[in-house]
What we know:
By secondary structure, the chain is an alpha+beta fold. Helices cover 21% and strands 22% of the residues. It contains 2 helices and 4 strands. A two-stranded antiparallel sheet has the order 1-4. The protein has a two-stranded antiparallel ribbon with strand order 2-3.
Amino acid sequence: MFPGGRKRSRESEKDCLRREIKEELPKLKLGGISLWKEVKARNKRSGRKMSDAIFIARNAKGKLAIGDKKEIDRAVWQKPRGVPLTPTSRFIRDRLFPRKSKR
C-alpha cells in the first residue's frame, strides 16, 4: 500500500507529506516534491468519500527504517506490478505506470 496520512489543521499538504514520511520512515529523506494529482471520488465498494493528494519526489535517499511499528509492519522498494493494492493505490499505480500496449 502507498503511504498515507491525514493533514493537521493549518498544515499544508506538502508539510503533511514530509511529517508523515518523517514519522513513518524517519531515515528516508525526500528531495523536491511536487503535487502530481488530486483525487476526489467515492469508493465504489464502500461508498466512502476519498480525497487524496498525490506527490512525486525527485529523490528519495536513506534507509527504509520503520518509525512506528504500530502503523507499518514492513517497508520495501517494490516494482509497481504484482503487488495487491487498495483501489486508491491501484489508481495511482495505473496512472504513474501504465501498462505498455502490446503491438
